[in-house]
Request: fold
Amino acid sequence: MARAALLHLLRHRSVAPTTAPLSAYKCLSRNSKTPSGIKWTSFCRAFSSKAAVNDIIGIDMANTDSGVAVMEGKERLDPFSLVADELSLIANRLRSMVVADVSNLASAAEYFFKIGAEGKRFRPTVLLLMATALNVHIPELPPAGVGDTLPTDLRTSQQRIAEITEMIHVASLLHDDVLDDADKRRGIGSLNAVMGNKLAVLAGDFLLSRACVSLASLKNTEVVTLIATVVENLVTGETMQLTTASKQRFSMDYYMQKTYNKTASLLSNSCKSIAILAGHTAEVAMLAFEYGKNLGLAFQLIDDVLDFTGTSASLGKGSLSDIRHGIITAPILFAMEEFPELHAVLDQGFKNPANVDIALGFLGKSSGIQRTKELAMKHANLAAQVIESLPESDDADVIRSRQALIDLTQRVITRNK
Reply:
């Protein structure tokens, strides 16, 4: 009921953008070489109408008027299809890597790696595209089932980063679900709901240990340090989320730092690791880092919007879960700037369900959702600009992968699940 009332308010309110529309993504210049079959009209065009964007990309840009770049051609570039074969290879390897001798631990560890429960595999996709975007070519893939017999070459090492990243990500989900007492994840029962909190925590620890073993096999101390920092940041971010001090809970700077630690650190440091393994300069490695950081921040900001506007069916988990757990996110923080009286409601907490309704009422009257989307677009634009700053290349695979990375920045901010 509370969510329905919020959506009704959002649909029927008219709010002018709080900031000027963000500039459109920079796109390939007229002289740039584009992948075969891709056609650009004046390299890109900006749309101020959400309906125009919907017509092109088929994704609802509800309440979004900021400019985005849209690629035209015979078919829209699908970033996931470009690395589909490698994703399948990595999925098979992950399933073999999380095998345990104890049966119930094995069942728990493989819970989100089973076919049909793997999720979007967003992070491995980003990392594989980044590897190609940095001039690393995809070798011919081996026959199915012999992934572990690949020689230790560069591409295989970068695939390992994708595997490590996914294991750390899933481990963090298992631990988060215990802390949040969640009962659903990826459209199925959460592991803690199915097997209990203790086994869920141990399964997360087990995945982290397997990730460490794989990380050590790379024998690159700089990469080991980066990924170890990710784990530290995850713990720091989760601890920051537990804070009860109003000054911190109601601070946008604190929220953004927490969001970096919990979400963007994994993607940024993994992207940087991809560049380091390829032997790139510190400057290029930092560009990879900045792409991952800004994409990760944009991703989480939209997640925070969807927690209010999405459905449990589309999200694969409960909606309104953050606010019900007293977690203050960007939409509410922006709403508080317009309605300071919301502070008192948040200080009281949400044990009383009526306070959830009151908070959602203020959010619906505010521009909190819109401003959060605009902030996500800002970070998406920054990520896209980073890709255009990479060293020039005439290689068609490199150009295609870089465009796919730019396309992902758009998909992140226009998704509805």
